[in-house]
């Protein structure tokens, strides 16, 4: 299997509440056409899909990702990830313990863990995480209970101690600041609103790629 995060990964994350009223599957298809490298279904909030509607939506997202050979990751909901045979699951510190999740999903699925410190990063590695997400890096309105922006120092610190651990930056990332996350050593950038709410979604993904490639040269 190719390296999970061939640098720099554009990791698109979306739920039905992030698309500013546009058809979510159209948004995902456009992002895939633009060349995202990973997709995470993060269905949260009061008007989030549930039950059969969520299951149906998740299956449709998964098949779109399959058409573009992009890993399909489910946030939080292990049972949903299992039910639709997702490629992986992403859990936060308040979700099921990563060790338990790894045992449930098995060795071949992707396990991502949100971390906010070196200790949490170490625990994630010991729990069998394939990558960690760190943020919010910049200001974000997308996650109501987000911690205050931490900048890129945490990413640099984790990469220094664990150079082999893929680290994804998240929170307020746009084409204009993505290179800063990249030059701090991140293996990829996770993006919700800057892609999901872009005028032209595919071109916005291409803008991320172009700016990251340019930033990589620095
Ligand atoms: C899920 C999450 N975790 C930390 S910030 C964030 C939201 C990121 O959304 P956006 O890319 O729109 O700032
Ligand atoms: C809260 C989150 C933090 N990081 C990530 C990822 F980008 F996948 F690492 N996803 C999340 N849902
Ligand atoms: Mg969570």
UniProtKB/TrEMBL annotation:
The keyword Magnesium applies. 4-amino-2-methyl-5-(diphosphooxymethyl)pyrimidine binds at residues 40-44, 75, 114, 143. It is an enzyme of class 2 (transferase). InterPro entries: Aldolase_TIM, ThiamineP_synth_sf, ThiamineP_synth_TenI, TMP_synthase. Mg(2+) binds at residues 76, 95. Binds 1 Mg(2+) ion per subunit. The keyword Magnesium applies. The gene is thiE. It comes from the Bacteria. Its EC number is 2.5.1.3. Its cofactor is Mg(2+). This is Thiamine-phosphate synthase. Condenses 4-methyl-5-(beta-hydroxyethyl)thiazole monophosphate (THZ-P) and 2-methyl-4-amino-5-hydroxymethyl pyrimidine pyrophosphate (HMP-PP) to form thiamine monophosphate (TMP).
